[in-house]
Amino acid sequence: MVGEDLELLITVVVAADDERQARAACAGLLRRVGGQVVQAGDCSDEEPGCWSVTVSRSSGERATQNVAGALARAVRTFVRSLGEQFPMPRVACEPPTAWTVLEDPGLLDELVPGAERLLVEAWAGGDPQRRDAVPEPDAGVAAEPEAGTRLLLRVDVATDRSAGAEWQARAVASRVARSGKITRVAPNGHLLSVHVDLGSSVNSPTVALLDAVSSLGRSGWTPVRWAGDSATTRWSALPVPPAGITELELTATPASAFVWTVPD
User: Fold this and answer.
1) How confident is the model at residue 138 (pLDDT cuts 50, 70, 90)?
2) Closest to 154 in 3D by CA, of 229, 219, 216, 227
């Protein structure tokens, strides 16, 4: 990882009727910062009448031995390049990523007309959501049985914003697998639970689970519990924070028993 170019992902949530209008609103930002649009999606389920547009570009920074410092510096340098009117925000860092969110529509409107907020992420090694992606099977088509183990992650986050919960879950998932995919976000009391499919492992459920726990690098995991052929362990933050990640749950299931569910 040391010496690699750090990638920036800039995601804008903008008021728009369709993808064409959302991309047009971001044209000025693209001319200013460079890069290319890598994703555009309808996020009206969270914010009615909104679309998100994600731009990828090189940060100009390179990973060093202190990768956390390089990631945070890449985010701050980009925000500084937007203009002196933008105050330096707090940057969260969970290598291989660091991120911040700008949420001043008045300032953002000068960059992107109709912008609600802007997420800036720096990644070491590229965004794992776009590398080595695991394709989903087509609805109604039976997939070949897989060997090994399927790993699932649940991240409980104390926040009232789905996007905020997803960003924190992505950062956690990236420590285990490059192909993590968010499958759903569900209310859980005052929390939001983000469910992530981490993909498959060639190892047994026990070994896959222990490897994932080791990658996450946290102490205080519960003893492994079994339900049929599936193994589960949990980690809880103590004391429970008023905001941020409160609990993690890892489940390892034999891939041959894993069933894809297709949303209605």
Assistant:
1) very low
2) 216
What pLDDT, on the 0 to 100 scale, is given for residue 45?
Answer: 59
Could you list the beta-strand ranges (E) of the chain.
5-15, 36-42, 50-62, 92-94, 97-102, 115-124, 149-158, 181-188, 191-201, 225-227, 230-236, 244-254
Residue 169 token pair? 């879950």
d(CA 10, CA 128) in angstroms, rounded, equals: 15
Q: Is the separation of the CB atoms in 33 and 55 below 8 Å?
A: yes
Q: Give 214-229 pLDDT, tens digit per residue.
A: 888 778 899 999 998 8
Q: The pTM is what?
A: 0.56
Output the DSSP codes for 218-258: -S-PPPPEEETTEEEEEEE-SSPPSSEEEEEEEEEEEGGG-
How far, in Å, CA of 123 to CA of 201, rounded? 23
∠ at Cα 172 (168, 176), nearest 5°? 155
